[in-house]
Amino acid sequence: NAGVTQTPKFRILKIGQSMTLQCAQDMNHNYMYWYRQDPGMGLKLIYYSVGAGITDKGEVPNGYNVSRSTTEDFPLRLELAAPSQTSVYFCASSLGRLSLGNTEAFFGQGTRLTVV
Amino acid sequence: AQSVSQHNHHVILSEAASLELGCNYSYGGTVNLFWYVQYPGQHLQLLLKYFSGDPLVKGIKGFEAEFIKSKFSFNLRKPSVQWSDTAEYFCATFSGGYQKVTFGTGTKLQVIP
């Protein structure tokens, strides 16, 4: 049972380059999320999705795009990389709405991105 | 929307010492609180969660947390820490507006052998 899988684990980008962070889950979860983690700042939500074909912005969406063509995959796209996007990125998923209780978010192992 | 705050940013303990990490939450309706742990270089893992019922919640690896409504607190405790508990600990809650988990800023725990 793989859970949530993220690739790559590490990446160095030059300013202005683009890349896609991959995220896949095999738990048939409807909800998927992208967070970025910066030291002393906790985790901030970038984008989330409540099901295939449906995505919405989180707290810090600028500079990013997402798509959700299947239940399993939720890639995050950086179009024009900037130094401010240097961070650790986590993908997560949950079976249903967290407000219903008795559910939790499962996290991938993270992607450490450096923009130089 | 609910939010959580953690005031201890960095805690250093010797092995076998007792641990208590603070977490305060703002009440926004339905209570749902989590503690996650992130070991160095690894992903976040759920330690324990509270939605209702017994306010003393037992989690994995000997951790527990107590929900105290009158104090708006959900502190994480462990009677005797080990070197392997060195990690960053995040208190979290549900934020209805985004259907997501909202995290505190985290507490780095360093356990000295």
Shape of chain A: globular
Number of helices of chain B: 0
Q: Tally the helices of chain A: what do you get?
A: 0
Give the structural class of chain A.
mainly beta
**How far is the first residue's CA from the last residue's CA of chain B?**
41 Å
Pick out its properties.
heterodimer, A: 116 residues, mainly beta, 7-stranded mixed sheet, 4-stranded antiparallel sheet, 50% strand, B: 113 residues, 6-stranded mixed sheet, globular
Model description:
The complex is a heterodimer of chains A (116) and B (113). Chain A has strands at 4-7, 10-13, 19-25, 31-38, 42-51, 54-57, 64-66, 76-78, 87-94, 106-107, 111-115. With 116 residues, chain A is mostly beta strands. In chain A, the strands form two sheets. In chain A, strands 2, 4, 5, 6, 9, 10 and 11 form a seven-stranded mixed beta sheet that branches. Chain A has a four-stranded antiparallel beta sheet with strand order 1-3-8-7, with no helix packed on it. With 113 residues, chain B is mainly beta. Chain B is globular. The termini of chain B are far apart. Classes of the chains: A mainly beta (116), B mainly beta (113). Chains A and B meet through β5 of A and β6 and β11 of B.
Question: Topology, please?
Answer:
The complex is a heterodimer of chains A (116) and B (113).
Chain A: E1 4-7, E2 10-13, E3 19-25, E4 31-38, E5 42-51, E6 54-57, E7 64-66, E8 76-78, E9 87-94, E10 106-107, E11 111-115
Chain B: E1 3-5, E2 10-14, E3 19-21, E4 24-26, E5 33-38, E6 44-50, E7 56-58, E8 64-68, E9 73-78, E10 87-95, E11 100-103, E12 107-112
